[in-house]
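re: that complex we talked abt at group meeting.

here r the seqs, copy pasted straight from the sheet so there may be weird spacing, ignore it
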Amino acid sequence: MPVLIPRSLDVAVEMASSHPDAHILAGGTDLMVEVNFNHRKPETVLALRHVDELRGWTIDAATRTVHIGSAVPFSEMEHGALSEALPALAEAARTVGSPQIRAAGTIGGNLGTCSPAGDSLPVLAAMEATVHLRSTSGERAMPFAEFMTGPKRNARRGDEIITGVSMPIADGWQGYAKVGVRNAMVISVASACLALQSTGPRLALGSVGPVIIRCHDAEALVADRPGAVDAALAAEFGRLAAAASSPIDDHRSTAAYRRHAVSVLAGRLLQRGTARP
Amino acid sequence: MSRSTIDTVRTDDRSGTSREVLGANALRPDGAAKVKGEFAFSSDMWAQNMLWGGTLRSPHPRARIVSIDVSAAWRIAGVETVVTADDVPGQLTYGLISEDQPVFARGEVRYMGEPIAAVAADHPETCRRALAAIAVEWEVLPALVDPETAIAGGFDPIHPDGNVIRHQRIIRGDTSATGAIVVEGTYELGMQDQAFLGTEAALAVPDHDGGGVEVYIATQWLHEDRKQMAKCLALPEDKVRLVLGGVGGAFGAREDISLQVHTALLALRTGRPVKMQYGREESFFGHVHRHPATIWMRHHATDSGEIVKIEARFVFDGGAYASTSSAVLINGVTHAQGPYRCDNAVVDGWAVRTNNPPCGAMRGFGVVQACFAHEGQMDKIAAAAGLDPVEVRLRNAMRTGDRLITGQVVESVAPVERCIRETAALPMPSPLPDRPDALLMPGGSGLTADRHHIRRGVGWGVSIKNIMYSEGFDDFSTARCVLADGVVTLKFATSEVGQGFVTLAPQIARSVLGVDDVVLDTIDTGVGSAGSTSASRQTWMSGGAVDGACRLVRERLFEHVGRAHGVDPLRLVIEDTDVVDSMGSLRVPVGEASAGLRIDETFEHHHRPTEELDENGQGNCHVAFAFVAHRAVVDVDPELGLVKVVQVATAQDVGRALNPLSVVGQIEGGIAQGLGLAVMEEIIVDNGRVRNPSFTDYLLPTALDAPEVIATLVEEHEPQAPLGAKGVGEPPCISVTPAIVAAIRDAIGRDLARVPVRPQDICF
Ligand SMILES: Cc1cc2nc3c(=O)[nH]c(=O)nc-3n(C[C@H](O)[C@H](O)[C@H](O)COP(=O)(O)OP(=O)(O)OC[C@H]3O[C@@H](n4cnc5c(N)ncnc54)[C@H](O)[C@@H]3O)c2cc1C
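got the structure back, here u go
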């Protein structure tokens, strides 16, 4: 099985174009699981490990924008400047798997897999992030909401490489919360990201629908209400979040619990974000 | 990161010497290798010219096999053999108690994952392709998945042996007795998996003449495997030699045959070594699980909370094959009263066959189920009588000399009251701080809760567990001891599955014979049976065998020294590493005394005989009992239904701590396993289909879920036990589960009748 190991983004893009059926390998924490279970039988693998352009991130103070290369692992989002620029992303990153998984797993891989339970995705949805793709025919950029098209489905073409995501720096409180049935190393049963950006509150939910769900009704409820939130308002905010969700019953949980959980998480995030210390 | 207080709690070395004798915290001989990743587990085995084996399994819970066509598999390059039921040379079925399980399904499959065929090939990938090439035509049949339907006779037999594996009732005392307090409940337990980390693996090497086979295998009982394998392979038992491969945990799941016959058959057919190894998903289908159970109980008690009568009905879902279901059932019903006095009882118990995954042995063996029910009942009695959970248990606590509802007198040391009092005396955890570490709160890294969302609860569980096998079974153990030139070599077939017999056996030899150098021979079938490493029995049984063999050797050594020095051998004793005349001045180091000698003795240890139960469930069916108390403290987020177990305190009746460190290891591990059953571990079976055969979705507790464990060992030497020590393996995982559930009930002020407790059980 040929493994293509490009050493620059240009070469990677060339290779992706000449091998559109190649399976792109970043941290391998999803891909290798699928290979082990025989769900995927790659004929060709395109490994991104040595493409340095994908492994960096920048915080542009002038445009107040963060750009994260697709091959940046979760461990780099947990601490330091990136975590200060995007606290919710740091919180989401800290919930991913174990330290080993966070060291290997990347944001590009989370986007490539596009599971409704992907932990970085509600943050990207709430921050209205732009996903950057590249192929030999050039760059494409699209809002995350357009990129994710269904459970484990996205708008990437076979010859495209996800180069990264960009989004505004947090300019208000933001947080991420995720329900799982143990204290670490667990796939999300329900999750929520709330970002109180200066342009308005943004609430996005994970694991409660085929895609990440933005809750415009809930956002509208609190859009013009600065200051502390009482329990009744938080409950109403949660109720609107639950109303926006469309969860299913499966072996991890029930639709009813998931709907309940996102309402609680949304309400709590709102109170957490508006509490005066 | 389990913040256990093993340093501060009573695990001090009891040996009084720096030698690794009984009572010392001797270290595991395989410990460093395991930590460094150098220990060879059975999955690490390899042989020259080796083939790989693979198993084809049923995708259906129940179906008729219309036809199997293996021809396409044979045509794949690298495939050396393909076998089905037609190729089994001997008996077509096997089983621990009744031989009802096919080596390969013939005609009909009865559970999802049942083996149908096996292949041997040059590479695991070739095996996989060969298995995919086998064409099976199915006629899917309706599956029997509801145990009550099996009991009611509402379904045609799914097996020639019928749909009821065993029914047993217990009638004792005045069945019309009543009490001022009557409490009842129906308790349910989901299916737990042993989830050992080292999956099933074996390497079979055929003899050159094809007349026998040597099998390296991770198992709990070499001789029982050999017996069942020899029958199916149509070989004399001495032509099937088993050697223990490195075992990565067992917990009951290695008692039944899994890949043993398949691997040996493939090796015999190809004349080449064959290795088989299950992946995690296959492992979930490859071994039996803990029985899911539904238990109804009604207790009558006096208004001061003393138990008058117990009524109960147990239903254990045995799945498709009998395995040890009938023994699990007996353990369940005979422990219905818990560690409490009770004179009157009406108990009815069923173990039934369904098309669900087969269930059998798992740590606690039927008693886990009983305990979850009786401890729920004790709290209900306490509430009705206005007592606290500790007081109601103290009032009813069993003592030595009390009778079980089977009429059997509990002759074992029974420090139930002491276990409860010593647990209660252990320090409570400090309250949740104002700014707690989020990782240690319910929800953990998910940051779901803030401090004010959390409520704390405390709960209790106390248990009684029989140790050794029951109902007339003579589960003896054998050991051989050779002393030569001051070095002892021990030989036994005791499976080391992590419990620490390889640590304990040398400790015994050092204590009895005054040597320091003890060599452990290979653990294999080259010596008599040791019985199973289960039922908390090896310290007692194989410990007794090693002790007995060492004592026989010591007698001969004393005779020799007596002769050489003109001293009556009866006056000689071992002191430290010397043979000493207790009435004179002679003192000879054991090394010197045994120079040039070779003393070789073998000893079989048998426990006292037990009886079968009669039709009313009366009889002395058990050998001995161990007791333990658990107090759990939990933090709960009631609105989201998430739980963090903060602390488990325990006082365990151990008889005598022969290796305190090792005992605490069992306590901590058992508590983690009981916690798993309480709040997360469950094989989800939907209409006979397993929905979560992976560690992604079968959740085991992580270090962040493990509670602080505070343990104290209650040491009252057990006179019946050869070394004064009771087994300690199972008790830690039994009453911790009800203790945790009781703590959750306490935190949320609501009843919970099912484990594992799911978030939706708490918040809706
Ligand atoms: C034990 C374990 C625990 C886990 N826990 C979590 C968890 O808690 N939360 C969570 O969200 N996820 C979890 N995961 C899933 C996984 O770690 C994440 O989805 C991770 O983000 C995948 O990143 P990766 O770099 O390993 O991707 P890979 O496995 O390398 O790739 C994943 C997919 O994306 C494609 N891909 C990767 N990079 C690119 C690119 N630059 N351009 C185009 N396509 C690309 C690949 O072809 C593949 O289809 C867990 C996985 C494991 C094994």
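couple things i noticed - The pocket of flavin-adenine dinucleotide is lined by residues A 23-31, 33, 48, 70, 95-97, 101, 104-106, 108-110, 112-113, 118-119, 156, 161-162, 187 (CB under 6 Å). Residues 9 and 53 of chain A are 6 Å apart (CA to CA).
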